[in-house]
Amino acid sequence: MQGGHYEAAHPHRCYEKCSLCDYWSYTGETTTMPGCIECSRPNKASFIGLQSSYEEGENVTFNWSATTNTTHYNLVIERENDDGSYRTIYRKNYAVSGESVSFGEGYYRASVQSYNSQCWEEDGSDWVHIISDYSNFQVNKPVYSPVITPISDDIVINESTHFIYGLPVGVAQGCVAVTDGTASYEYPTAKQAMGTGTVVNIYNNDNDLVDSYTIVVFGDVDGDSWYDGNDAYFVNLVTNGMISPDALTDAQRMAADCNHDGVIDTVDTGILEQAGLLLNDIDQTAPIEELQTDSVYLEYCGLIDQSIEPIEPDQPTQAEETPAAKTVLGWLKALFTVVLNWLLRIF
Ligand SMILES: [Ca+2]
Ligand SMILES: [Ca+2]
Prior knowledge:
Blueprint: H1 2-9, E1 15-17, E2 24-26, H2 37-40, E3 47-48, E4 53-55, E5 59-64, E6 72-80, E7 86-95, E8 99-102, E9 106-120, E10 127-131, E11 135-140, E12 147-150, E13 156-157, E14 163-165, E15 176-179, E16 181-186, E17 199-204, E18 209-215, H3 229-239, H4 250-256, H5 266-279, H6 288-291, H7 295-303, H8 323-346
This protein binds calcium ion (CA) (2 copies).
C-alpha cells in the first residue's frame, strides 16, 4: 500500500522495501540510506546536566547524549513571552554537545534537533530529523549581599555586635546608605526619632531581610533620640532598684551608662539632669546645620561622648531587703515595669 502511495506522490523516485522493517520507502538520492525513512530517523537526544535555574550572565552549557543515525545537531533555545508563547532567541545549526550560552532574566526552553542529512523526509521538505523533548530552565537576576556604609564619618556600624552609634543627637534622619539593597527603620517610640532602640533593617534587592542593627544614643534611654530628665527618670528607677535592669533592653542599658564607666548609677542620672536643663534652651526643631553652630547644643553634646563603643554595663548593686519588703518591692517593681513599658510605647 505504501509503495503505491509513494509512487503516486513521488513518481520520479525509486522505491524498495526496507530491509529492516519491511516498510516501503524510496531510496532517495543517496546510496548510504540504511532503509526506510523511519529506520533512518535518529533517536531523540536528551540534555544532560541542565539545571532548572541559572543566574543572569552565567554560562549555560548544553550537553546532550549522542544519537543513532545522526549526521549533525541543531540547538534551539526559546524564551517565554508574557502571554506564555515562546520565541526563538538562539539557534545554532551544526551545534556540538557542550555549547555554552548566557542569557538575561527570563524563562526558557531548549531543544536539540538530531538530523540525518543522508535522507529526506517523505515530503522532501527537510532531512530526516527528530526534535528532543523540551528542557525548561529559568534565569534569575543575581541577588547580591547588600553593602551598608554610614552616612557620616562619625557614625559607626559594628558588624560583630550589630550596634550603630555616633549619630548626631536629636537630629539624625538616617544613619546608613545601602548598595544592592534597602534599609528601613523601626522606631521604638511614636515620635519616629533615631533614638536608642531604633532597629535598622537591611533588605536585599529581592526584599528579603538579611540583617538588623540597633541604634544606641548614649544617654537616650526612652528612645526619642534626645537625652534629658525623662531619661534620668528611667535611670533613676534602675539605680533605686525600683525596676530591674532587665526591664531595659541591652541597648537601653548601654545608653543608660552615659559616662561609659561600666556602671549605671547616680553619676549617670546627674549628667542626664544637667543635659535636661541645657535642652530647655535648644530649639529641637532646628536643622542640624543650625544646631551645629549653637553653643548650647555643642555644650549639650559635649556632656556625653557618642563615639565610644557600647559596652554592657555591670548590674547595679542593690541593698539587702527584708522578706516582707521583698514582697512589697517585688510587686512595686512589677508594676513599674508594666508602667515603664507602657510609657515607652506612648512616648
Ligand atoms: Ca530620651
Ligand atoms: Ca555610668
